[in-house]
Amino acid sequence: MLGPVILAASRSDKMRRFVSAAPGTKQVVDRFIAGESVEQVVQIVLDAADQGLEVTLDVVGEDITTAEQATAARDAYLGLIAHLKDLGLGEKAEMSVKLSMFGQALDGGHELALANVRPVVEAAAAIGTTVTLDAEDHTTLDSMFAIHEELRQDFPQTGCVIQAYLFRTEDDARRLAANGSRVRIVKGAYKEPASVAYQDKTEIDKAYVRILRILMEGEGYPMIGSHDPRLIAIGQELARRAGRKLDEYEFQMLYGIRTDEQLRLAAEGHRMRVYTAYGTDWYGYFMRRLAEKPANLRFFARSILTKG
Asked: Which of 186, 197, 224, 236 lies deepest, with the highest CB count within 10 Å?
């Protein structure tokens, strides 16, 4: 029951100040956030490549309130892509973007987000990689899917994310699987009302399996976003039943979580991609990681209590 409370706190300026000042925060943030600079995160890409891992990079900071901030977010991604190009890492690192960071919630936000994200997708394609559009709360999804469809006309490799806890997602998965999209499936990490989303963990897990089966049996490229051992095993079995080769789907996990399992899957020949967030505006991303799993919150609480 703590998850919804933490998600609400993720939008509280008072809680942001408290968490940022807490003595144990840095230790926990460092577990989930790869660094604050492009230089730091590029080194992680190099290290991941040496271990047989791929990455998707997320510049954190979706709380955008001005068009100028949205432009700055676009430029941050363009700078990241330039660094990857210089190091020849295009094929080892893709990008994940939240359209809210590109101005989606502002006046005229749909057009603004599309205008800002397009040059990022174009620059990514030029270095041999791609972009995945992250899913946010349910009110943003029609815009996200429309932008995804628009971008795929010129950049068909552009991916998107679907969330198993939403009632609408099975229909979204059927549409995306039929048109050959790259699709990451996750359980979902936003506070959603019972009118649009499953609230029970068991029901969410069942929906995840149903949706993953749709993706595996479809024409697209499934990306299994989960740390759950049972869902990982089910994903492998569904891929086998669908006759998919190891390079026809992939697993994705968060930076700092189940690292040994990431390496195990990669050693078995699976494509294993690590979702790697970096940047200075880490608070919202960090709070969602706490909300997703009680163990993360316990780890944070211990860190605060033991650091003076």
From this structure: 224
Check if the beta carbon of residue 167 is closer than 8 Å to that of residue 190. no
Of the ranges 14-23, 26-35, 194-203, the best mean pLDDT one: 194-203
Q: Which of 184, 273, 288, 289 is catalytic?
A: 184
Q: What is the dihedral of CA 196, 202, 207, 208, to 10 degrees?
A: 120
Q: Which of 58, 74, 134, 288 is catalytic?
A: 134
Specify the pTM.
Answer: 0.86
Exposure b/e, 134-165, CB count within 10 A at least 16 = b: bbbbbebbebbbebbeebbeeeebbbbbbbbb
Active site residue 134: yes
Q: State the Cα–Cα distance between residues 273 and 200, nearest whole angstrom.
A: 28
Of 62-66, 167-171, 173-177, the poorest mean pLDDT is in: 62-66
Query: What distance in Å separates the CA atoms of residue 79 and residue 140, rounded to the nearest whole number?
Result: 26
Residues 110/72, Cβ–Cβ less than 8 Å:
no
Q: For residue 204, how far is the Cα from the chain centroid? A: 18
C-alpha span between 295 and 28 (Å, rounded): 12
> What is the enclosing helix (H) or strand (E) of 21?
helix 13-21
Q: Report pLDDT digits (tens) over 233-290.
A: 999 999 999 999 999 999 999 998 899 999 999 999 999 999 999 987 766 666 666 6
Distances (CA, A) of 229 to 236, 253, 262, 273: 11, 12, 11, 16
Amino acid at 187: K
